[in-house]
Amino acid sequence: MRTLKIDEVRFDERGLVPVVTQDAHTKEVLMLAYANRETLLESLEIKKMVYFSRSRNQRWLKGETSGNYQELASLNLDCDGDTVLAMVHTSGPACHNGTSTCFEED
Amino acid sequence: MRTLKIDEVRFDERGLVPVVTQDAHTKEVLMLAYANRETLLESLEIKKMVYFSRSRNQRWLKGETSGNYQELASLNLDCDGDTVLAMVHTSGPACHNGTSTCFEED
Known about the structure:
2 copies of one chain form a homodimer.
Chain A (H helix, E strand, L loop, with lengths): L16 E7 L5 E7 L1 H10 L3 E4 L4 E4 L8 E8 L6 E7 L16
Parallel strand pairs in A: 1-6
Antiparallel strand pairs in A: 1-2, 3-4, 5-6
C-alpha cells in the first residue's frame, strides 16, 4: 500500500478528498465519505477516522454519537493522489441504518 | 447488497457519481472512478465497467486500451444513493502503473 503523506494529497476545489473506508478484517467496503486536510491529520493523530461532513459542513468524528468508532489501521493514497483508502477496525455498524456497511439493504 | 437501480442514483451537479471498484475475488479495492447515467447503463448492458473520465471528459471503457477489462459481477448503491460499489472480476492490473490496485506503491 502507498502510505498517505499529507502533502501528496490532491484536494479538490472544495478542499476535500474522497475516502473509501474498508474493514481491515472482513475487507468489506463500509462507506465512502470525504475529508479535508485537517480531518486527515486528526485521523492520523487520534487513530480514529474523522471525516468532513458535506451536508453539515463540519468536522465529523465517526462514532461520536453512536459509539461505533472506526479505529484506524492505515491511511493510503491512490496513484494520482486524489483518493484515500482508509483501513479500519470497527466494533459496530458503519451505517446509520444499523447495517454493517452502507451498501446493504436496510 | 443493495442492487443499483438507475433511478435511485443521486448524481452530483456534474451528472456524475463516484464508483468504488472492488475485486469480487480478492476483495481488494482497485480504484475509485466516476460514472454518469449512460456509462452505468452501458456497464450493466455489456457486463464490463464503463466509467466517465473527468480529465478527458468522455466515456471510458476500462480495458479498451490495455485489454484488462473489468467484468462486472454486480453494481450496488449506498444508503443515500450517492456512491456506487462495483464488484468486478479482472484478469490484469487495475492501475495504469501496472500494479493490481491504484493504492499500491509503483
